[in-house]
Amino acid sequence: MVKDILAISGYSGLFKLVSQAKNGVIVESLIDGKRMPAYASAKISALEDISMYKMDGDILLGEVFAEIFEKDMNVDPKSDAKALKAAFKEVVPDFDEERVYVSDIKKVFAWYRLLKEKEIITADSVKSYKEELAKDEEEQEA
Questions:
Q1: Average pLDDT in the 74-78 region?
Q2: By the 8 A CB rule, do 61 and 109 touch?
């Protein structure tokens, strides 16, 4: 679901990994479809590696997106801070309010909206993501 989707510091929106280059990667903007190089000096974060703080550990961003999808939430990322925190509390009831900032919550809802618009987050992708997570947990327990 969030595999090969990247966030690049200094650029708005999200990017899809297209290929490797000698000194970085080639990415395609999910907003306008333009391709560009992202150099190793840029702070590039893969969405599958991002997690958010909870009171008892952390939760992967993909899991947060799956929860938002299952609750069929359509939150405007430009809402006020109180509304954003209340909506996020529905998704992750035990998130750490001291370490998860409103700006982080805005990004989560903005990214979710973009991924849903581009049909990267669908019922099938959420289902396969959850199955993959369950399989990974089983392997770790074994």
A1: 93
A2: no
